[in-house]
Protein 1
Amino acid sequence: MERYCTLDRLPPGMSARVIGIETDGDMRRRFMDMGLIRGTAVECVGRSPGGDPSAYLIRGAVIAIRSEDTKSIQVTAETGGE
Amino acid sequence: MGLTKHSTGSALAGTEPGIRRGPSDRLVALAGNPNVGKSSVFNALTGMNQHTGNWPGKTVAVAHGRCRTDRAEYTLVDLPGSYSLIARSPEEALTRDFICFDSPDAVIVVCDATCLERGLNLALQTMETSPRVLLCVNLMDEARRKRIAVDLDTLSEKLGVPVVGTSARDKRGLSALTEALDALTESPVPAKHCRPRYCGEIERAIAAVEPVVRELSPTGLDSRWLSLRLLDGDEALISGLKSRCGIELLKDTGLKSALNSARAQLEREGISPAGLSDRIVSATVGAAEDICSGVITYESSGYSGFDRRADRIITGRHTAYPLMLLLLAFIFWLTISGADYPTQLLSDVLFRIQDALSLLFRRAGAPEWLHGLLVMGVYRVLAWVISVMLPPMALFFPLFTILEDLGYLPRVAYNLDRPFKRCCACGKQALTM
């Protein structure tokens, strides 16, 4: 079963694969620098106590990103983690 | 963020533009992502022999220092941490400009062994522009601790550049690094190394533009890479070329028409300018991914069980804030109570000296106003300030550095981002407070 959503809606503990990034300019370049491109596996590993930002495991690095930025990343959730 | 000699000491007062460099020194640039221990590699190689200088025309401070091996002397330049040579910030622009325009004899790209793929991205980009690249895989001890195995020989074979594993904090692997550096800078013909291949359309566009670019570009600059950057419309690079080399590429009508027709062809083949940028980045990221598979083996998942459990508490919804307050309170308590004893000791010693000074002044028959001014005024104030301020500072900064090394500070920034954002700031600024 596959579900499509934006990365900010991915609950902690779940993994997903990037299908597209819908933003331009600096933020897009930053995502690319992190290696966040089409097909990249991402796992949400936690939310900050305030509820935002969330921490993501991307290519072996844990990175915190605010939901206003992850809203523009579209993913397909993989059920059952990795 | 710890206070180092060169960020506080006399070197700061004596900042000078450019780099000081012996005539026969080989120029070596150190590049790498932020927080991969680039500066510890730099410090370990140069020892105390380093200076901080502002770059000409830039406000970004760059440390440089000298390092001597049995066979040569090097001037090492510690470039600001960056993720990409397609520069976005002034620091990244400086890194790019140095690698492209100052034609260093070699570039050492420092990577984090626990997070190699991300570092390889920069390494691959550097290899596109520089003929002599050395990959330094740092934090090997950390990788071992996290049960990540890195096959350095295979990595070197796949990349086509020398690869050395180090743990710079413990000064391990550094002799291998300097040996590799000697060998690399002495090799007459630049080694053939791996370059990302782009899709057919882009390769054809590069091939169409490259001959024109080769005619115009300054020596030492890789024409294939420059062609690609020009196709991608890298404004910052074009203005950098103009200011550093006095070359205005886009004034050339031949190049302009070649670029325009190549871009038009790409557009016809369905690759828009934005699509082109994406494909270029994807090619490098994809190449890094390919190279890493088969080089890195995780015995556990990359973000290991212990870190994961610790983070669940440190950044947990109910535990994060109480833990943070407790920890900060503990540090303040330790600083204040721990400083009591040395303060007492310092003030005892310093005031005993004051008594001796008073005695000296009276014996010498100095007028009372001079004694009052120098001893009771200047010396006494200084003694108070030192005995009250020095011990807490000498305790607080090391404690803070320990927290930083443990990786607690970024987690504080993470925890506090939401409340700080409400005040139109970001979590990082919590640390300044």
Protein 2
Amino acid sequence: MTPHILTRSLDRSAMIFLLIVAAVGILLPLSNLLLPAGSMFQVPTYLMSLFGKYVCYAILALSIDLIWGYCGILSLGHGAFFALGGYAMGMYLMRQIGSRGVYGNPVLPDFMVFLNYKELPWYWYGFDMFWFAALMVLVAPGVLAFCFGWLAFRSRVTGVYLSIITQAMTYALLLAFFRNDFGFGGNNGLTDFKDILGFNIQSDGTRATLFALSCLALAVGFLMCRAVVTSKLGKVLIAIRDAESRTRFLGYRVESYKLFVFVLSACMAGVAGALYVPQVGIINPGEFAPGNSIEAVIWVAVGGRGTLIGAALGAVVVNYAKTVFTSGALAPYWLFMLGALFILVTLLLPKGIIGTFNDWCEPNRLRNRAKQKRDPIVESAAAEDGVTLPRPAE
Amino acid sequence: MNMMDTKATSALLYLDGVHVSFDGFHAINNLSLTLAPGEMRAIIGPNGAGKTTMMDIITGKTKPDKGEVLFDGIVDLTKLDETKIAELGIGRKFQKPTVFESQTIEDNLLLSLNVDHRVRGTLFWRKSRDEAARIERVLETIRLTDSRHMLAGSLSHGQKQWLEIGMLLAQDPKLLLVDEPVAGMTDVETHQTAELLKEINRDNKTVVVVEHDMTFVRELGVKVTCLHEGTVLAEGTIDDVSANDRVVEVYLGR
Amino acid sequence: MPDLLRRLIFVLLLTFVSSAAHAGPFEDAVARLSTDSFSDTEAAIGALTASGNAQALPIIGALQGGRLLADSASKQLFIKSPDGKFTDAATGASVASAPTSATVVRLNNRLRRVVDAAVGTLTLLSPDPARRVQAAQSVFKTHDAAALPVIDGALAKETNAAAKRAFIEARAAILLFKPDATEPEKLEAIATIKARGDREALALLTGLTGDQPPSVVGGAANAKAAIERSLTLWSYLQNAWYGLSLGSVLLLAAIGLAITFGVMGVINMAHGEMVMIGAYVTFVVQEVIRTSYPGLFDYSLLIAVPLAFLVAGLLGVVIERGIIRFLYGRPLETLLATWGLSLVLQQAIRTTFGPTNREVGNPSWMSGAFELGQITITYNRLWILCFTMAVFVILLAMLRYSSIGLEMRAVTQNRRMAASMGIATSRVDALTFGLGSGIAGIAGVALSQIDNVSPNLGQSYIIDSFMVVVFGGVGNLWGTLVGAFTLGIANKFLEPFAGAVLGKIAILVLIILFIQKRPRGLFALKGRAIEA
């Protein structure tokens, strides 16, 4: 990457966003570690882990925004990539338990002993090494995204069709990972982790480091997305989003672009999952549930698609609201709230928080936009979707 | 046989015996058409004559059921997809102006430049001085220099038509397919568009113009092909064609 | 075993020779049973079987169930009925209680076989034809030669056709295994067993060992091959039936979607919830009937169908007017909004009816099953198949012949033209969406008969339904029909090889691959307009 790409990608709002992420990523762990427990400014460890979870969700949201906001690919199966990354990390953590498990088997994780495995399945080889697991965090989601995307984009499956088959993909994985004989712990998933790279996973120091790393990953992921969307490739992506076939007639190989950005996004989601697992201490097949993936999409919609910052913001806001609601007396009403959020955002706030904010702040752009009869994003969504209503010929 | 071969190889675009049907409806029926390099051709015909479908076939959007489509005498277009065909140097302007509405006019042109279109090349692409100059020239030609930073979606219908022609110019193709370029334009704009197309044609580019507007076609002053029900009804100068009994019958009804 | 057989044969022959002339053997047997020693018990069972006494079956039945108590002091036997009452075994008279000294008559494994055989023999003579058939079936399985005289005797008197056939088959089984049966007898027996042609017959022939004439061995092998062939065929038919049944369920769930998604192009993720609501309407109808009009229970579904259509349909109209009409032309946003709607509906049902499964009963005409050749068909599945086809045909006819159907087609084909012809397009939109939702509600009524009625009911169908519509081709009801049955049958044929879950995954993968070949489904419309 040339420096040019970086400088170009940093406008004022991007700088502000990065500063906030850096401040949170540094100050929160420091306050947790250095200030005495119970002090007014000390952030308790459980809260830090909770925020760490939000940060991972923010990375997932960024990855969704990259493909949905900029390339018009609405994936309802991004939770699958997130979970695959999580499983790759979980497998490493399982192998690290060693003989400290309930059954004390030095090689086999507890659930395998319980299920009468005689030896480690071949696909668990190598996960005792961190570098290998870290590689798999990128490779497993990347390969799945590549195979899936190659098939789907090459045959020009677009719009809602693509959304539905991504949902079917994560659903199929959900079914598979629920099976005990699949070798990933079945229903219970992977849990009871002890340590990571030799550090106790429960200790405040490890947690603080994990949190700081998550913030770093968010910042790096954000920069990467900015670099992509501000390059000429980003313009091509938007062109594909707005008028796919027009882009083809200009000589762009649309499927390659989609594949590139889809795989990149899947790898990001994998990283988010890998950082998520040690902080929440468990990964189970529930992460593959179609509902999770579609919920992640609404974070992006709330924050504002095609803004990157909005995606991260939406993930944090919605999940914070979820924590507040589901832990209080309003718990039974959370699903009403979430459902209403889906409906209201799409009906009343189609540009999300950041998009609407931008429109207020940039009267110049607003004036330009006011001349348009319809929002181009909206119009193009109709044109690019699979179910175009028949029009009269010529 | 010999004559056909030379005809096929010397032509820039050669269609022979092309058939396309959609669910039993014969959109193109034994269509044959030959364009010499550097030629400008106007195509007219009533609604449903198959003009747009013909363009779809040339640009690879629709695959013909049978028939030959050759470009530059050797390249079989029926075997290629849209991207490959565009890379060969066939540019197209759509009937309904299709520009990238949420991007600026300048970006629209930038996207159209015929530079490396592969993913990696695009990711690390930087505008060279030469390319900047080309964009500048096109902006001037289509008279949108002042509004270069405006979103394409905010342009008027006629301006969008021009922007799309500008995109064609940036693409710098050997063959331009221009579908209804003056729809929604004022008389002055129509006149300017005709001049622009003639100018492009003088650069030794081959142009196919599909248009309803007879004044415009007359102004182009080129050979006219009239399509009807997916086949060539008449070919010749505008006066010949408009004097043709069958053309009159098709246009005015029986 | 031969020893045991010989004794039984002996005892049986004795019975037939001496009949029940003297009252002795029965009382003797009762007395011997009461000593509770294994050898005495065995002899007593033989004597009881031969006695022809009406109490013989209850006694041996109680012995079999461990409910026979013996008082060795008084040499009396008592039968303890499953509900804890006691009868005197010898007389059948009720007694208040058994003496405290009475103990259960013990059995060992060898005796247990003797007891089973004796019960079999005794029930062969039962006055109830169904029990006679059952007993003959068990003799067929054990092919105990000791039962042959009883079978022969019973066969001679038998008038019931089913029992007669069962006896002939049992007799054939015995003869096939009987060492001293003649070769023609055995060949005839093989023919009889082959004609029976089920899994039992196959097991019987597979068990044929020992010194058999070559013609019998050959005949048995041929018969076995023939039975295997026919069984494979039947299992295909059974799978096909399961597939049709699953296909009908999928079709029912997808057919409403084919209207909203296929015809209108609106992607409704809350479609499954419409199905769920239909199921809950059925629940409510049945609750009302149970508490107020118990006699109407068999008609509960007939009442629920129109109600479910109305409730889900009205809800559909409200949703279309309230949400979806603002999102036309924005399919991805529609998808998100309707997903949110599905969360709201699920949660609403959960707070109203509770999160657990609710009990929805089958009316009498929908419970039970019948056998067709070697396959079992349950009435509820059969009715659902018929019902689905009826819904499909009515819908097809409605779209084709009614004026609202005409308007619907006009609006989908060319909205602007339809509007200028004076069709109130927005009204048609609402009605079309209501129709699709209403059909989902009807599907819910049918699905309540075979699935758990819970707030999550709809979710399990939504992905499958979309797969059906996408596979069949959007905008074509026939495509949905073919898609549903293809997927249903493919699923059921994959299951034996891959298991239910892997089979389902395989189907999903196959559909994804299929979309590669035909991105617009089996029955896609072609043309410029669609691809624009």
Protein 3
Amino acid sequence: MRIAPAAAPPDAPVSRLNPLAKLGAALAVSLAVLASIDPVTPTVALVGVLVALPFGGLRYRRLLRRGWPVLVGAVLVGCANMLFAADQGGTSYLHLGPLQLSSVSLAGGGALGLRVLAIALPGVVAFATIDPTDLADCLVQQLRVPARFAIGALAAYRLLPLLADEWELLGLARRARGIDAGANPLARFRLFAATLFALLVGAVRRGGRLATAMDARGFDAGTPRTFARRHPFTGADRLVLALGVLLAAVALAVSIGTGTFVPLVG
Amino acid sequence: MGDTTRSLRWRTIDIVVAAVLGVAIGVVFWAWSLLWGVFGTAFDFFKPAGGLGVGIWMLGAVLGGLIVRKPGAALFVEVIAALVEALIGNQWGLTSVLEGFVEALGAELIFAVFAYRVFKLPVAMLAGAAAAVFATVWEWFTYYPSWAWGWKFAYTGFGAVSGAVLAGLLGWALVRAMAGTGVLDRFGAGRERARTV
Amino acid sequence: MTTLAVRGFSWRHAGRSAWAVRDVDLHVEPGERVLLLGASGAGKSTLLAGIAGLLPTDTGESAGEILLDGRPPGGTHRPGILFQDPETQLVMARSGDDVAFGLECRGVPPAAIWPRVDETLRTVGFGYPRDRATDALSGGEKQRLALAGVLAPDPELLLLDEPTANLDPAGAELVRAAIAGALADRRRSMILVEHRVAEALPLVDRVVVLAAGGGIAVDGPPAKVFAEHGETLAAQGVWVPGSGPAGTHPSRTAGPTLLRAERLGYTHRDRSTPALSDVDLSVPAGQVLAVLGHNGSGKSTLALLLGGLLAPGTGRVVAEPALTDRSTASRPIAGTDRAAASARGGRSAARPPHRWRAAALAGRIGSVFQNPEHQFVAARVRDELALGPRRLHRPAAEIAATVDELLDRLRLSRLADANPYSLSGGEQRRLSVATALSAAPRLLVLDEPTFGQDLRTWRETVALLGELADDGRGLAVVTHDTDLVDALADRTVTLAGGRLTAPAEVA
Ligand SMILES: Nc1ncnc2c1ncn2[C@@H]1O[C@H](COP(=O)(O)OP(=O)(O)OP(=O)(O)O)[C@@H](O)[C@H]1O
Ligand SMILES: Nc1ncnc2c1ncn2[C@@H]1O[C@H](COP(=O)(O)OP(=O)(O)OP(=O)(O)O)[C@@H](O)[C@H]1O
Ligand SMILES: [Mg+2]
Ligand SMILES: [Mg+2]
């Protein structure tokens, strides 16, 4: 079901948690970091998250294999903040047209890169250990998301691996019919675009048939659905959620306590 | 033919096709996130112009609105796409889901202003632009809080142009092309097409 | 106990000028088992969809009415329906979840769901655990799972649209046994669509034949129907028992070898076991090689490899000069497609087929995929057929002649301007066979070319394929259809678990 590898084996403690507990904890941490633009809040949050991961059965190496883009993203955002910061005080290192770099903006940009890392990482980790079927079930069972939409979306998600196969088959079919692009880059791009479009059209066509198949099984009936798969919100789930909120509070408290806290607005 | 497009109730096919669009667009988002993560570096010389790349992320909202033509369609497709992007594994995790929600509100607003009755090119471009404005303003706070106001507005301006073109124009053209293949026959967007054999 | 009443029902699909179903009257009492027959394209699948309440008003025009116990079908007030193509009816990612889906929709208490799921999976002979991913199943396995999904909510009326079309004979027998079991207590009624009458007869006690021009041609007990109307029905394309195809034994001598597989093997992405291993075989010109084997034995994988579409995982596919030489090409290639020309002869001909340019490949090896829809690329039937020869730069007049002849021979002329995806199952199959023939390749690799055909279109397809072999072309045919093997094959090979069980034998 996945393109990138899951970050934890299916029997790891973190994989057995309710997805909403993980997302809730991640959201709490992300929001706390979002509310501040100082370096201390994200540092505390990051340390907290990284320390917690092994307890959930996550290995840093495996996480890195899936989550490396988060590092690239953070570095890029950090750089953009350095180069275009409003405050270019302190020693100036560079002034090249609109580009500026100074000791203040360097430090500020670095802090903001760290901040983005701390905002994104908890969510990336949460999603890396979530099974889509569980997520849809829990959205309905705990958050009361309308079942028709959640289950409909889940059924559509099943097409994702099929889309990968379909992409391959579309290529094979075109080849079997004498269509290929050869070395010409323009022809290649056109073939690529045409295949992509065919994939989209095929996906929508499948969607229509899937809807018919679902109605044939009674999906459009007004009777309330039952759930074969129960996902209770257990004690462990509550604990994880509480720990997430706690970490968010601690990060803010440390930052305020040490006098470094800078709020996002005001 | 019954005028089912005006009914506000979502048929199963509306839900599933919207979700399928979301899944397909989610893969596009995912690829674009990784690509833009690399090629976007080029814009570090003038980062606010990086707003020119944000339009693609508005595509889900515009396509959803144009095809399904119901309140909430832009929101549903865009949020599914953002969720799928995060599930496959992008660099932003939950943040991109929140951003997806925020930007879809922009597109939804435009479709609502036209009472979910007008789906011509200008409306599509407006929806794309509005979504991009919402998204870039959200990014002022999440990613670029240190920027001077001038840069922030420049970023949003570039974003709006990108949204109008990469989401609005491209989305509108895609819907027209798709209608030509007959897959949208059960939707308002494909209704106008009539060919009998 | 469900009673079905169809009164003067007609349906015309949006965008079509002809009615798919016209003036049908049909009553089915509880416990009755009906075999619904009719030529390919007669409207059988459409009628079943109507009975299942699956023809939304915005997809066409209707007349008459369909009542289940006095009420139109809809919601959970529906018969169970199994479609022609299993791909389109699986909903969930895991097998068990898929069977549970219909039960959840009906609000069955959770505690009762899993025992029921397990029981149903056992009934249909599904050999995997509940959490088996649905997209990791072969076509036949998917069909069995889909049947389980239909049976799980215990419907009182069962609609089955060619439920065994994709199954190997043993698997088909298993599914028929499952169906017979589900009908044993006479509580449930059934309408079965199946072209192969002989196999379906033990399951039914009444035969209804849709007439070509509308209405019902014949209705009654099987013995009476076939005794009184056998000949007229056979002329209309119904496989009347006893009038089936005679097992003609062809006597074609093998020409030069076109293609050889040497210790060929392939493992699909994300799979631990190979789908195919150590296969040695050769396809000669002028003969038909039939590839048999159970579901999941690797036949389709072999077909894609022989067709030059997949790169071999191990071993190799060798194209012999008889396939690649310009002088022996079945028709001279007009025009100046440099890519195609340069791929011919010389060093490049020594390359394996999967490295050939597409135009060269299509001109030499024609492939028919197991699922017809997988190979459509155009928006109209006619364009679909013209595509191959156009890529080979054949003259326009020749293309038009080829297209018209194929349309005519495979009974698709009426549908020349239709969208390929809107065709009936049998029509789609014929179109996909025709697309591979239109480029006139030396070698044809066909995956289940006759499934879903009525007697008439079956005969026409078989005759066409036979002519191609007589004409000196080589055919490799993957099939479960024993009639096809009897009528056409010169040699057969059998795959089991990805390996050839015995060397090629003469049929
Ligand atoms: N979605 C559709 N849109 C337009 N025409 C359709 C559609 N589905 C079927 N048809 C047409 O309606 C006619 C009846 O099709 P149907 O699928 O009911 O035939 P069938 O009796 O099941 O044939 P087969 O034995 O080949 O499966 C055919 O001519 C077909 O081309
Ligand atoms: N795209 C794929 N990805 C992964 N596994 C596959 C894929 N296609 C086939 N397989 C697996 O490879 C094996 C051989 O499949 P194949 O489709 O070749 O069988 P087959 O003999 O054609 O079966 P059937 O008679 O049901 O069509 C099966 O176990 C199947 O599950
Ligand atoms: Mg049919
Ligand atoms: Mg097969």
Protein 4
Amino acid sequence: MRTLPLIEVNQLCHDYDGTGGGIQQISFRIFKGEFILVAGKNGSGKSTLFRHLNALLMPTTGDLLVHGRSIRKDPLAARKAVGLVFQDADTQIVGETVADDIAFGPENLGLARNKIQERVDLALDALGLSQLRERNPSSLSGGEKRRLAIAGVVAMDPEVIVLDEPFSNLDHPGTLDLIACIEKLHRTGHTIVLSTHDIEKVITLATRMIILDRGRLVADDLPQALLKHLEPFGVREPCASRLGMAVQPWAS
Amino acid sequence: MTLFTYVPSTSLAHGLDVRCKLCCLSLMSIATLQGGPVPLSLITAMVAGLLIATAIRPLTLFRELKLFFLLVAMVFISRSVTTGGEPIINLWGISATKQGIVAGALLSWKFVLVMLMGIVFTKTTKPSHVKGAVQWFLRPIPFVPETRVAVMISLFLRFMPLILTQASEVSQAQQARCFHLEKNPVKRLLRPTVPLLKKTFQSADQLALAMEARSYSDKRTDPVFIRSGQEPLILALCFLVLGLSFIV
Amino acid sequence: MNQGYQLKETVYSALFAALIAAGAFIAIPIGPVPIVLQNLFVLLAGLVLGPRWGLASVGLYLLMGALGFPVFAGGTGGLGRLFGPTGGYLLGYLPAVFVTGLISDRLGKTRVVDTGAMVAGSLIVYGAGVPWLKFATNMAWNKAVFAGMVPFIPGDLLKIAAGVFAAEIIRKVMK
């Protein structure tokens, strides 16, 4: 028996300035506990779509429901349920120390200090940053900054974590650490929506894959089913799949 | 810039409540600018004690404050030669009077003392605590959104080093494109400045979006203050010295 | 979805303050002389952010310096520097940015008005800095002007010219 979807996207259109450049007629549903991989080349509309998920952008036409409530009527509910991590880590970090930055979100929610402390400790632990709590963010590596940005969102206790190109500019060890953290977040009950060029990194973790092309949703299926249909849309098919083998997970 | 950076430790100054420290800093600054040699000596002894506890090396002090000491020297010399009175030194037709030297020395002493107090403060106080104290002090003032000022302080502290890094990146990129061959001076000014400004504003746009995504609100949880219990004693001492500076 | 928090202006203003702070450390060599960019950024704050938010920006910068963070020229900070002999220039930034922003705001954002606004702003900075210098060091007036204003004029003229162009470009980026 199917439960109600967490997020329902209905014929979503966003037209930036009347020139028809944004996203068009996107419809799909997100259920609790899923891991959705959003693939598509640059300009296919991934970031625009993501910004609707937490009500940063409003649809031009169509609608987006979070827990059955439209984001037009109740954007705050969407903001609470969906945490969005942007592509550039530096311009998301606002605190003078790692712990201060993670506390930023809960402080905005007006939580009591001891509760904030709890959330900060949990987020530091979940993202493997506990040793770095008093560090200045400028002194962190790229991978650590990325995890800090995610920690700041995790501390707000969202049900859905949306990650926009989280692997950009990461070296290999940073990537492996990040994959491990994302997997842990998924296992502990968060619903994950993630966009990336290099789908091989997380395809073994994903429960579903969505392909966007020129603002439209062109495929929505199990990841394995879509492996052979990626290239036409500018997404590289994982090497193993090209060779007719099973794709191996990156992190164990 | 290491002189002004917070270093965690367990001295007296480290443990005090930030608000108390800020009060003391203000009180002692006024006392310094106000008072004569007696209170100044007292304050100098206090500051010296605190400085020693922070383990700053005198060499570092001189090295990082070069420009400041130059300005102070300028004040000293200028006062010495322009104050009327009995001349003591005569060099190249310019004479320094006894009154001038005393006045110059006193003023220079005051400037240096206030500077050293500031250094003790920043070395022993966490920047995020400073932010909390500013918010607390601004609260009774109407028309000033204290939480927003506190957030702006955070942004300032977080982004100043980043902007400096970006400035050097832009400068290096420009040098790679041989901008140093550009003859027009206005263009020379613009070449590195405009990209830096653009980057700053683009970062600002992204930042505002990210803060909205984290539900930024003016009504935020209040900061927490840590105290050591010695605050009333220290405050009383400072008021005493302030009073002294007006009398002696 | 601003919710009346004026988030964008707040962030612009804070980042501009950081820019002004960084400006104390950025010097561009023009011929034999390194031109420090700080006062250019201060006047630009007025042109680009307007009088109120420009003032907030400079105010934040001075507040951070007063609290002791090393953001004044030479990498120093604190009240000692702020009330020292060159403190007048720093405190003069406050009325300067406000006036520059006000002129540009009220009279239209054209190149001519911007130039006038920046000239007015620069004069205010000297109007505060030179007397302060004179009283701190006890110099004669003409010495104070020759030490504290005249050498900077050529550089300031260049900065004003650059600033007018920069303001145009940045306003387009800000939309």
